[in-house]
Amino acid sequence: MADNPGTTGGAGINLVEEDDAALNSTINTTPLVDIMLVLLIIFLITVPVVVSAKEVELPEEPNKVVETKPENLNVIVDSDGLVFLNTAAATDAELMAQFSRIARIRPDIQPEVHIRGDLVTEYYHVGRVVELAQRAGVLKIGFITRAPPPRL
Q: For 98-119, how does the pLDDT look when each residue is reduced to its tens digit (9 = 90+)?
């Protein structure tokens, strides 16, 4: 064993010197394939989740036509945030007095408060009217909107 220059020690391990080894110029693609398989599995798992997360089932509710009754209270909030009770400008105190009058009526025959807010009105102004109605004890508050245009 000692006279063989490529062999060292016992246990049959052969060590090759650098001069005797051929140069390996090929690319080891095993790590690349492993990474690509892992990415493919992650992609296949996450795509259905992302696609289904955007899909939403909306409730179907028919829009009921509101019958305007003379006892209903119409509150209009214009684009500047000014509040009108029917056609006259109203302060918060005047609204509160009207809402309190309505709230004293029996709940089953209590008139409704219909709020018509301009499209560009800040939500704060409409919310203020809703808060006044709730504090007074009004049970029936509705928002009057225009039907959206039909989809083609």
A: 999 888 888 888 888 988 888 8
